Amino acid sequence: MRTRTSGVIVAENGERTIDKQYKGHRIFERLGRVSQDDAEAKLRQHQARVDAQQQEDQRGADQLFRVAAGKYLLECQANKVRTVETIADHIVLLNHWVGDLPLRAVCNDSFQAFKLDRLAGRTAGGQPARAVKPATVNRALEVARTVLNRAARVWRTRDGKAWLGSAPLIELLDETVTSRPPRPISWSEQHKLFPHLPGHLERMALFSVNTGARDENVCGLRWEWERHVPDVKRSVFLVPSEEFKTARPYVLVLNDVAWRIVQLQRGKHPDYVFVYRREREVHHDREPKMPYRRIDTMNNTGFQTARREAGLPQVRVHDLRHTYGQRLRAAGVSKEDRAVLMGHVIEDMPEHYATATIARLIELANSVSETADQTTILRVVNG
């Protein structure tokens, strides 16, 4: 027979038993002939032990989100993750909204203000900021997901306890609302845009539109990746897996235009192919000259100013890669060869190529300069 307290049962002979489910644990004990008050006190002792054990199990969750995010960033740096700088930027932003929350308190609702503020162009303090698209917000949320998953599944305290009991579900935003289809540029648009670019950016843009290389691979292209192919009197660049989006080595094939650009860059910097230096505004005759440095992204003020001056504000840096792919297709290059030239992952794709293959790929890459300007027509046909 049940009593006034859930979980305390009294039999016909007056003996009491505790039988209760509490926070996922079953508490069971036969107490014999004891009073109701004694039985309730015994139940409270059992519940207190369960509470203490759960607190011990979740002790790692007392860490703040910013501590866990910092730990993840250090791991990325130690593992030389290709996108570590981008991850760091996302973490800095996330910390403004959820950095001071204990891990155990972080849930999907914790990021609601972050989502709304970023989309609306507000800082965590409500000040005006640059509004971003759902895709940008989602990249930060993916970093948060990774931090929480590692806290639950990988990281342990000194006595082997998980930092977090389980990782909460973090919902991403719908990117299809604002996603934009690929937009290759036409030859006429290229002739409008490129002259407005600063010299160093014009060379980088011309290199991208003739190789299909992504922004990060153009900016981060290293001389140590160069591999000379004597029989074709040219080099290729072997981009290592940790520096390429699909995490596999990529052979960057240079057509005649890209090769001439590489030759122009030689001797400027010991490590990076594409670099920039500010020229002296005064004392032009003085030494030393301003040092060259790596360019972080082509999508900088110079590029944005150039596209505005050219009347092409909708053109993005990534459109240069799409342009290369469209021109290869217009030149009749097969789907398989286009995949090789652009670094797409296909089944049984080799990581290195014979000299004859390199020569053929160079010939195919050169075909982009012979294509007719059909981009505008294709955009109209495709709607």
UniProtKB/TrEMBL annotation:
Entry-linked SUPFAM superfamilies: DNA breaking-rejoining enzymes
One GO term (biological process): DNA integration
Top-level taxon of origin: Bacteria
Gene3D superfamilies reported for this sequence: Intergrase catalytic core
One Pfam short name: Phage_integrase
Keywords: DNA integration, DNA recombination
All copies of domain Tyr recombinase, residue ranges: 180-366
PANTHER family linked: PHAGE INTEGRASE-RELATED, PROPHAGE INTEGRASE INTD-RELATED
Protein name (database record): Phage integrase
UniProt source species: Piscinibacter sakaiensis (Ideonella sakaiensis)
